[in-house]
Design goal:
By secondary structure, this protein is an alpha/beta fold. The protein contains 9 helices and 11 strands.
């Protein structure tokens, strides 16, 4: 529950609130769970305030100082967050539906100002800028991660597990997403996120089940190399896949006879073509995360 005295002060003129803050700098305002819907908090000094669970539906926080505030489960739906200082915030499970988020300052006052337009990613952006270890992790993900797509029946899982092991031997970070539920929006979003983080993708088209849907989520809008595989016991790929050949990041299908031949040829037939394609795409700066690629005939 919010401290009622703090809440009563905040609901007065903002100038009075800011004056009180200046005279009581040791006090950390407790506004947890407060109902501040439609409140005018323009230029309010909320430094180090606890706003956990507070309801700021339609509140105006333009120019407010939110540095080091605690934002856990805070509701900013339809709120205005423009030109706010948000350095050091702790934001978890924040609701931002239709909120206006512009020019959010993520740096301290004595640092060159860096602004973002998304409260949820602000902490991550700042860590990226200031923490070398975080940057190293991101670099490892984007240059070493390989997403493996395939069917997780016992027979096909053996192929996927073998691919994972041999990729590790080649100093890659294999990612297998094994889900036992029908494809849902959440599953598709997870696959797309993993694809974004991957250096390239290996897709085993043999006896596909959800693979067509997974590739439909990725191929048209995400320029990440995809190396398709197909065991020769299956004469042809699923019909939808033929259209994917028009996308320059989808490589020709590598048809393998059995697991042994796949493993023996993985460097030449899978890793090298996918890596080369990734380098080509990076050089051309083909980043089509927003707009679908226009197929040409």
């Amino acid at each position: 529950m919010a401290n009622q005295a703090h809440l009563d002060l905040l609901k007065q003129e903002i100038s009075a609130w800011n004056q009180w803050r200046m005279q009581n700098q040791e006090v950390q305002p407790d506004l947890g769970g407060a109902d501040l819907r439609e409140a005018n908090l323009t230029f309010a000094d909320l430094y180090q305030a606890d706003l956990s669970g507070a309801n700021l539906t339609f509140a105006n926080l333009s120019g407010a100082n939110l540095s080091r505030t605690l934002l856990i489960g805070t509701n900013f739906t339809e709120a205005t967050l423009t030109d706010c200082n948000i350095y050091g915030i702790a934001a978890w499970n924040v609701q931002l539906e239709n909120a206006i988020q512009n020019n959010l300052i993520i740096t301290q006052k004595d640092e060159a100002a860096i602004t973002v337009d998304n409260l949820k990613v602000a902490q991550f952006i700042y860590l990226m800028l200031t923490n070398r270890e975080i940057r190293d992790v991101i670099e490892t993900l984007t240059t070493k991660s390989v997403l493996i797509l395939g069917r997780f029946t016992p027979e096909r899982k053996a192929i996927l597990d073998a691919l994972r092991e041999v990729l590790r031997e080649h100093n890659y970070l294999p990612i297998l997403f094994d889900f036992d539920q029908p494809s849902t929006q959440t599953v598709r979003e997870t696959i797309r996120t993993l694809a974004h983080l991957s250096h390239f993708i290996i897709a085993d088209l043999t006896n596909p089940s959800s693979i067509p849907e997974e590739l439909e989520t990725i191929v048209p809008t995400l320029a990440v190399p995809i190396q398709p595989l197909l065991e020769i016991t299956q004469k042809r790929e699923f019909s939808m896949f033929k259209g994917y050949g028009l996308f320059p990041w989808v490589l020709p299908i590598y048809r393998y006879t059995d697991l042994e031949s796949l493993i023996n040829n993985i460097q030449e037939k899978v890793i090298e073509p996918a890596t080369k394609k990734a380098q080509e795409l990076a050089a051309k700066k083909v980043y089509l995360n927003q707009e679908p690629f226009e197929q040409t005939t």
